[in-house]
């Protein structure tokens, strides 16, 4: 049953029952909003406004329980400029490349892994997803604002070339980036105004091609793992605001200079060597002047609260470290290693936990910021899709696990047979027992190999001695040869001389007898 309400000037309302679901369509000029639409009714809903398809410039599908939507469904809407898919339950890849006029896409609060957009895209809202890849079709000449907070981006290169050209605002807060190369944003060097990289895991910054961001106002690198403020930061020397608080900063390159446009600098929560910070402030006296006001703005107090030190340079805590760079860096490396291998000290672990908690709080705040009110029925449908998706993932994991186990089992049995372990009964052995036998056999083989290797090393030493002897012999022979050659040449020249004299004599005798 499909009923179409009477068309009013401002509001068109279509109600349809499809598989028991009722969707509502609201219209205001070229803006359309579809509510209470599900995967099974979305085609029908779109079909019902197809007659005025070319009039649709904005389509709002936010807050529905949609787990999929394709560019094909939206193909009739050739003038679509804004598509709002926020707060749905979209999974995996969302491919909207063929929507050639789409300028604004809102995808906040979904489960998307990969986004593909067309050449007209200017604004992408995609906070709170699972995105590890963004592809912007075309050359990317449009100025762009890209908001990707709380996703799974691990490198700037996860954004295609088109996405990294003419970018004005790029927000990658709460992603998984560990190194940054400003060179990857070279095509935005004269457009980029803000770059937000807060809460990643960045320990290294490069600047291939020495890019300078001439329009950059805000650079936020707070809550990362940087140990060194390198000269690469000069890519942002004209910023008005720089945030490096809560890193692992110890040293500052002597060449780091910020312009007098700087109005805000936050270096709290680091482990600076006092001399490095002092030197920085000597060279950047303007930064020192605004630092106190910056700390005041960030914390309400004019100085950073220090733990484990009473020393300061400007408003920031610092320490006098004997061999600062080496010691600290070795310590950081050790910590990293210890944490990865699970052997960290209590203190390290507490620090790590504190950082994780801060990150978690930031994630919660971001989710809160973009949360929208969704009616109970829709929320329930979304939850159902989420559970189904989780179930699917778990089933895949189980199937993968089972496959791996079976493959391993086969492999083990084959290996055992090849090694002639456990006699003919290898097929009856359980996996663990077989593994133990195989490991034992490998250990025996290793010991055997070691002794062979020792022998080989002995042979090798002997061989090298022989080679040295031969080389010496060769040198001696070569010298001898040269001497012989010299003797031959001198004999030859004597012979030549004699020949000349003989000829002269013959001539003289000839003329005398004539
Ligand atoms: C329709 O949109 C215009 C501007 O785009 C707005 O001013 C107006 O309030 C809207 N009307 C309704 C009923 O939402
Ligand atoms: C998309 O819809 C959400 C929820 O209705 C709204 O808060 C958001 O501003 C919309 N996005 C755009 C780009 O209009
Ligand atoms: C997020 O993406 C990863 C792969 O990048 C996938 O394994 C995982 O299931 C996804 N999580 C959700 C909630 O979609
Ligand atoms: C001796 O010298 C002549 C002329 O200089 C040369 O042509 C000839 O090849 C030499 N012979 C030898 C054996 O070096």
UniProtKB/TrEMBL annotation:
Residues 323-508 form the LRIM1/APL1C-like dimerization domain. SUPFAM superfamilies: L domain-like (SSF52058). Keywords: Coiled coil, Leucine-rich repeat, Repeat, Signal. The keyword Coiled coil applies. Residues 349-411, 463-501 form a coiled coil. Gene3D superfamilies: 1.20.5.4090, 6.10.280.140, Ribonuclease Inhibitor. Pfam families: LRIM1_dimer, LRR_1. The keyword Protein biosynthesis does not apply. It comes from the Eukaryota. Residues 1-20 form the signal peptide. This is LRIM1/APL1C-like dimerization domain-containing protein.
